[in-house]
């Protein structure tokens, strides 16, 4: 006897980044953030949860390898689910076997924790018949995961309640609102990052005053402006805010002590190339954003995709001898915000 549920969840890429927690245990951020959730064909987590009275203990496998259930984030997700479960007490005592796979590199700065915990929250919610918003459950696993619970453009409100009850994600516009928006993910390096997002943001908050300045003085205005730009489909304004926010997150990381360095030479080359491309075009055609890793995400309109792919092919060819990252090649995924 058992019940099995399988869910798929895509990654999301923040254009206004979450970087810094005001509460480490509850995963409460120092600022609101805003992202686009990608489609369900490319970068996704797929999670199957099976509950059975015959299982002796809870177990989890990630990408085919058994991991420890002692992970406090995993435990917090389960706790949040149990608080809202509508199953009988009898079935609640059944043990779980959780199996999750990402179809893209894990812990490489491509938002695997976002897709992974959003997917886990969705699967557990289905299993335990939890209704309503589940972004708070996903947040208990990884902050950015709360935004992957919804498709399209999503804002995570930092909230003000000390319990975190109002620190939830809400969709601000569905993907269909801006149907010609495209997202290119350039995988520069797919190896595991040396400093996880959690450790990197903690160190940055503790040692870089610029991060607090950004959260308090820059983001509140910028997030309203970018939200308005999305609602008006004003690409130029959207692009500038996106690039500035990514640059400033990495500037804060560099100002940490010791510095957290996520972007590499190839990342910087991409930044330079995109600025050159925009400034020699009749309008801003592309925006870049970097998460905690060297990989670039580019935002652009459908009509400009072919031209940009040509430029990337020309300037970032897949084989150049004296640079490891180049030699690995840059794989490109073209995707668009998803409906949910
Ligand atoms: P990323 O940039 O990929 O989000 P993070 O450092 O934020 O990297 O998080 C990586 C961690 O997220 C992994 O070590 C793992 O603990 C967790 N994670 C990633 N994918 C999944 C998944 N599918 N299911 C559960 N947890 C996951
Ligand atoms: C750079 O959500 O991975 O991708 O909450 O500690 O799990 P934890 O961190 P995580 O951080 C994401 C950082 C980011 C920016 C963003 O997605 O907003
Ligand atoms: Co992450």
Description:
The protein has 340 residues and is of the alpha+beta class. Helices cover 37% and strands 24% of the residues. It is built from ten helices and 15 strands. It has a five-stranded mixed β-sheet with strand order 1-6-9-7-8, covered by helices on one side. A four-stranded antiparallel β-sheet has the order 2-5-10-11. Strands 13-14-12-15 form a four-stranded antiparallel β-sheet. Helix 1 runs antiparallel to helix 4 and helix 6 (209-232) packs antiparallel against helix 7. The longest helix is centred in the middle third of the chain and has 24 residues, at 209-232. The protein is globular.
Shape: globular
User: How many strands, what sense, and barrel or not for the largest sheet?
Assistant: 5 strands, mixed
Which oligomeric state applies?
single chain
Structural category: alpha+beta
Distance between the termini: 32 Å
Q: What is the radius of gyration?
A: 20 Å
Residues in β-strands, percent:
15-25%
Sheet with most strands: strand arrangement: 1-6-9-7-8
Number of strands: 15
Bound molecules: adenosine-5'-diphosphate, ligand DP6, cobalt (II) ion
Helix content bin: 25-40%
Element-level helix/strand string: EEEEEEEEHHEHHEEEHHHHEEHHE
Query: Would you identify the regions where 5 or more consecutive residues have pLDDT less than 50?
Result: 319-329
Average pLDDT:
92
* Helical stretch tally: 10
Write the layout of secondary structure elements.
Layout (H helix, E strand, L loop, with lengths): L2 E8 L1 E5 L4 E3 L4 E2 L3 E5 L6 E9 L6 E4 L2 E3 L4 H13 L4 H4 L2 E8 L9 H16 L7 H7 L10 E5 L12 E5 L7 E7 L9 H11 L1 H24 L2 H20 L10 H15 L6 E5 L5 E6 L3 H11 L8 H5 L2 E5 L5
The chain binds adenosine-5'-diphosphate (ADP), ligand DP6 and cobalt (II) ion.
């Amino acid at each position: 006897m058992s019940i099995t549920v399988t869910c798929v969840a895509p990654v999301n890429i923040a254009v206004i980044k979450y970087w810094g927690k005001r509460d480490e245990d509850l995963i409460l951020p120092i600022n609101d953030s805003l992202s686009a959730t990608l489609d369900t064909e490319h970068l996704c987590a797929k999670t199957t949860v099976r509950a059975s009275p015959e299982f002796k203990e809870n177990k989890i496998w990630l990408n085919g390898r058994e991991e420890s259930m002692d992970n406090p984030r995993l435990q917090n997700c389960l706790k949040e689910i149990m608080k809202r479960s509508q199953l009988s007490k009898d079935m609640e005592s059944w043990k779980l076997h959780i199996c999750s796979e990402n179809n893209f590199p894990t812990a490489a700065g491509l938002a695997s924790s976002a897709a992974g915990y959003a997917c886990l929250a969705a699967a557990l919610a289905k299993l335990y018949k939890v209704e309503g918003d589940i972004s708070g459950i996903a947040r208990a696993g990884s902050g950015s995961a709360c935004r992957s619970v919804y498709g399209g453009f999503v804002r995570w409100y930092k909230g003000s309640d000390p319990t975190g009850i109002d620190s939830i994600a809400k969709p601000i516009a569905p993907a269909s609102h801006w149907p010609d928006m495209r997202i290119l993910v350039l995988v520069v390096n797919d190896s595991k990052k040396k400093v996880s997002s959690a450790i990197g943001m903690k160190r940055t908050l503790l040692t870089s005053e610029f991060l607090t300045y950004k959260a308090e003085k820059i983001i509140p205005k910028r997030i309203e402006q970018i939200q308005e730009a999305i609602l008006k489909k004003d690409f130029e304004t959207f692009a500038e805010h996106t690039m500035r926010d990514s640059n400033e997150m990495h500037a804060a990381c560099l100002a940490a002590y010791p510095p957290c360095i996520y972007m590499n030479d190839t990342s910087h080359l991409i930044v330079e190339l995109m600025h050159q491309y925009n400034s020699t075009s009749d309008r801003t055609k592309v925006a870049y954003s970097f998460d905690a890793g060297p990989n670039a995400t580019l935002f652009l309109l459908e009509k400009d995709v072919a031209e940009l792919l040509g430029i990337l092919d020309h300037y970032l060819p897949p084989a150049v001898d004296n640079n490891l990252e180049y030699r690995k090649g840059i794989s490109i995924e073209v995707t668009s915000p998803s409906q949910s």
